[in-house]
Amino acid sequence: MKPDLVVCDSQVVDRMVLETPADIVCTTFSILFTRFRGDLNEIVWGVLRIKDLKKGYKILIAEACSHHPLEDDIGRVKSPKWLKGYSGAELDITTCSGADSSDDLSLYRLVIHCGGFMINKKLMLSRIQDAKRHRSQ
Q1: Is there a contact between 57 and 98 (Cβ–Cβ < 8 Å)?
Q2: What is the Cβ-side half-sphere exposure of residue 25, based on CA atoms within 13 angstroms?
Q3: Which helix (H) or strand (E) holds 95?
Q4: What is the number of other CB atoms lying within 10 angstroms of the CB of residue 16?
Q5: pTM (2 decimals)?
């Protein structure tokens, strides 16, 4: 019997997609927890902006994970590499870590909450509202 859904860690998503039959839905823990602890519509809004990134745009990757950065860390290595490769632009990417991102968010074109699933819903929604408030200024 085939599963209806395959869920994996973001570190192995490429492998999961390659090894999972095309008729089985795939997702990650990060996406599931974003739905439960965040505002999925707002996150999708941000994802759709990635295609419009241009040279010199400032991006903030606000890490919420409590682990020490790994050699091939998603927030500090993989995401910046992917963003630059996808956009084809030399982006100005800043990373901050911890439960509170107190940077001036008005400086950034896009804010990515890496590991947002690691913090509680109230804090995640607060971070999203902060980013939205600065976006409209």
Answers
A1: no
A2: 5
A3: strand 92-97
A4: 17
A5: 0.79
Q: How confident is the model at residue 66 (pLDDT cuts 50, 70, 90)?
A: low
Cβ-proximal residues to 88 (8 Å cutoff; 6+ apart), any chain: none
Tell whether 22 is covered by a domain. no
Tokens 């929604």 belong to 125
Q: Does residue 99 have a pLDDT over 90?
A: no
- Phi, psi values for residue 46, rounded to 5°: -65, -40
Per-residue pLDDT for 73 more than 80? Answer: no
Are 112 and 46 contacting, i.e. CB atoms less than 8 angstroms apart? yes
> What is the C-alpha to C-alpha distance for residues 130 and 128, in angstroms, rounded to an integer?
5
Query: What CATH number is given to the structural domain containing 70?
Result: 3.40.50.11410
Establish if 12 belongs to a structural domain.
Answer: no
Output the six-digit token pair for 19.
Answer: 């090894």
Confidence at residue 6, expressed as pLDDT on a 0 to 100 scale: 96
The tokens describing 133, both together, are 């408030």
Q: Is residue 78 part of a domain?
A: yes
Q: What tens digit of pLDDT does each residue of 41-52 get?
A: 888 899 999 999
Determine phi and psi for 120, rounding to 5 degrees.
Answer: -75, 165
How many domains does the structure of the chain reveal?
1
